[in-house]
Design goal:
Blueprint: E1 4-13, H1 17-28, E2 31-33, E3 43-45, E4 53-57, E5 68-74, H2 78-82, E6 86-90, E7 95-98, E8 104-109, E9 119-126, H3 129-140, E10 144-147, E11 153-160, E12 173-178, E13 189-195, H4 197-202, E14 206-212, E15 218-224, E16 230-234
Parallel strand pairs: 1-4, 5-8, 9-12, 13-16
Antiparallel strand pairs: 1-13, 2-3, 3-4, 5-9, 6-7, 7-8, 10-11, 11-12, 14-15, 15-16
Length: 237
């Protein structure tokens, strides 16, 4: 039974609060909304809630490769450097890049007119891609897949069509990619959901902490999935 609706992504920032929001708004095709509170980094907003990125101020600096990153379409890699990002290792179809604070993402250079919303995948490094993909598929009430367009299995697993996923722009999916290294630190990027905390706990999630609310006892709850990936659950109503 589905218990989750995708809400938005979140990105931690510690050193470039004035650059993180504008960079990600431009690179994803969204807009930047500055915070009305001094010292807070603002947010990235899209035409749909699921396109958003909440920029969260944290005290700790980035200390490891991002275990969760976005794949985005660009017209040119020059767009990234013009916004203050950097270019890293090139692959056949994509290039590993980084935002002004060093957060990795993958840029796919596309010919022709780009979609208004440029993000098309959330990629999650995984020790057991099939198991964690099936776990999240069950939470969203969709199927986990691993066959490419020719029907051949791949080492990657993904889910698409989940409630709350953006429907405007390109195909949108959450991809679970096999990696040899274990998770060692809190994820710098994570996702927020609407749902029932008890449903997640019953399915094997682990509660990390709760954030007190102003108009309700708990504003949101931070949980971890079976591989330790942090995510936040907000009440559905």
């Amino acid at each position: 039974m589905a218990s989750a609706t995708f809400k938005e992504m979140c990105l931690d920032t510690s050193r470039t609060m004035d650059a993180a929001g504008p960079f990600w708004a431009a690179i994803t095709g969204c807009r930047y909304a500055p915070s009305t509170k001094a010292g807070e980094p603002g947010d990235v907003l899209g035409d749909q809630e699921g396109m958003g990125i909440a920029i969260c101020a944290v005290p700790e600096d980035k200390s490891a490769k991002n275990r969760v990153h976005l794949d985005v379409s660009v017209g040119s890699l020059d767009e990234i450097t013009a916004l203050g990002g950097s270019i890293g290792e090139a692959h056949e179809h994509w290039t590993v890049c980084a935002d002004p604070e060093g957060n990795e993402f993958c840029a796919f250079v596309r010919e022709g007119e780009l979609p208004h919303y440029r993000t098309f995948e959330i990629v999650v490094d995984s020790a057991e891609p099939e198991a964690v993909a099936r776990w999240w598929a069950a939470r969203f009430g969709v199927a986990a897949e691993n066959a490419d367009r020719q029907g051949d299995p791949t080492p990657f697993w993904w889910i698409a069509g989940a409630p709350g996923f953006p429907t405007a722009g390109p195909f949108f999916a959450m991809v679970f990619a096999p990696v040899p290294e274990p998770k060692t630190v809190k994820n710098r990027m994570h996702w927020d959901l609407y749902g029932d905390v008890d449903d997640f706990l019953a399915a094997g999630a682990r509660k990390l902490w709760e954030v007190p609310g102003r108009t309700r006892p708990i504003a949101w709850t931070v949980l971890a999935d079976p591989e330790g990936n942090e995510f936040c659950v907000f009440p559905a109503s």
